[in-house]
Amino acid sequence: MSVLCLIANPAEPALDSQLVAAIQHETHGEINWLHQRVACEIIRPKAVDPVAAARAVIGSRPVDAAHLPLAHRRKRLLVADMDSTMIEQECIDELADAVGIKAEVAAITARAMNGELDFEAALRTRVALIKGLERSVVEAIRRERITLAPGGRALVHTMRAYGAYTSLVSGGFTLFADYFAKRIGFDEAIANVLEFDGDVLTGTVASPIVDKHTKLGRLLTLSEERAIPISETLAVGDGANDLDMIRAAGLGVALHARPLVAAEADVQIDHGDLTALLYLQGYSDDDIVR
């Protein structure tokens, strides 16, 4: 058995009963609202391709559609990317802005996230360009320039409240990952370590690099250590270094992702915020811990 999820962004609740009824007419199945105007599911749709049928009706409206099995729907393990996933910025780009080279560094970041460059080489190149930045400046950027992605705290707190383990695994830096993991509520955080000479960046990052292999490895290790079947795991990210864990997880979600990632993920969320990951698991608005 399966379920078709229809999800809008809570900030732009574009899902109405007429649209849902029109989709249900094409897919059949039972309508169940999870959050009025934001999230609805159609249980046991009969269409051969429910997502294609839904998207044909949705057209240009800002509503996402995903088709999932009902079995093992609620996940017991979350592994999440940080930059442009759990936070709204790329930290390295904001650090580069402090030395006046944001455009140059952001171009490298974009190519790396699109899978066009070797991740480790691109990371070391970018970090070398911010050599000499003072720790106080890094901390000020963390405090003043980085914002949490909407729905992230609700996602993590709700999953933890229902017994899941949550891991933030970032190709970014511990100075940001540790700080934001605590603010969001993750059980753990893993990231790269920027190296300092006193309080000044040396332009280097410690080995080994946290990359796509680390992310996949952490997903598999936590699954084994905590006796959680892969079918009950969830991975979310937006860039090429997230793709291996997204492919491997029981539910892999490409969130506002690069085209390469969106094309290969189980679920593509282009409009919803991070609460979409709760609706995918069948949580209703009343279940969400805010």
CATH class of the largest domain: Alpha Beta
Structural class: alpha/beta
What would the principal axes of the Cα set say about the shape?
Answer: elongated
Number of helices: 12
Instruction: Name the CATH homologous superfamily of the largest domain.
Output: HAD superfamily/HAD-like
Mean pLDDT: 97
Q: What CATH architecture of the largest domain do you see?
A: 3-Layer(aba) Sandwich
User: What is the CA-based Rg, rounded?
Assistant: 20 Å
Sequence stretches where pLDDT stays below 50 over 5 or more residues? none
Q: How many structural domains are formed by the residues?
A: 2
Across the major sheet, the strand order is 7-6-5-10-11-12
Please state roughly what percent of the residues sit in beta strands, choosing from under 5%, 5-15%, 15-25%, 25-35%, 35-45% or over 45%: 15-25%
Series of secondary-structure elements, N-terminal to C-terminal: EHEEHEEHHHHHEHEEEHEHEHEH
Percent helix range = 25-40%
| Euclidean distance between termini CA atoms | 30 Å
Which topology of the largest domain does CATH recognise?
Answer: Rossmann fold
Number of strands: 12
For the biggest sheet, the summary is:
6 strands, parallel
